Amino acid sequence: MDGVSVRALRTRxxxxxxxxxxxxxxxxxxxxxxxxxxxxxAWAGDTAFGLFLSVALGGLxxxxxxxxCGVHRRLLITVEIIVVFAVxxxxxxxxxxxxxxxxxxxxxxxxxxxxxxxxxIVRRIARAPVITFRVVLGALAIYLLFGLAYSxxxxxxxxxxxxxxxxxxxxxSSTIYLYFSYITMATVGYxxxxxxxxxxxxxxxxxxxxxxxxxxxVVAVIVGNIGQVRRxxxxxxxxxxxxxxxxxxxDETAARAHAADALLAAAAAAGAGGAAGVGGASPTGxxxxxxxxxxxxxxxxxxxxSAR
Length: 308
Hints:
The protein is mainly alpha-helical. The protein has one domain. It is built from ten helices and no strands. α6 crosses α7. The chain is elongated and about 110 Å long.
């Protein structure tokens, strides 16, 4: 009995797993993968093994996002090949003892994830026929990806400028980059970490504006229209054309009715003028008596009776 129960449980889990992989718009799982990626980057992002896991999990997240958004198969295969090469490059850099190279590989890969994933999610949301709770989760996933992307971008800026990004510390950790990114996007502004360069300050300004405008515009509109069914573009154009045709036919019908009324009025006026010309009018203005009628024709057989 226990063996049967275990086999049934395995069959059910296998069926549910296939359904998760095959079904589209699984933005709840996307949101969970992004949260796990953020936690892993904050917890073990500065260690060699943490960098390797960060790249691997980021690649898995990107591949799942593209798959659940229904992108073209060629693009999905290309991304999967890039993910494999990125994981191998990160692993080789860690094995060679160059942790800095591993940081740069992880940073560039994180930027690519944060660039491609929102585009795929936006494309999927724009084509959704109904605004559902899954669409809302997709919009929130984009918001989290913005914060993750800026955390990688700040670290990359420090690398290319060869000077500290923050005034408070010359060697910030991955946790500090994540902390500063999401605090800036939420416009909390504790002030414990501040950018040291003009480029860093302008990037922080752009993130604060992007985060707030995205919440009050995109997310607010999606949440406000949840449950609404959107008409496809082709159907909307056909409906507009049909409406225009209906207006034109109505105008033509009204014009034809007006022309018919005008013809009837002209005919009535012509008949009234003819009657006045035949009857005439008396000198005193009274109506003239009607003209005597012609003698009626003799009844049939009258001629024969008179001849007899």
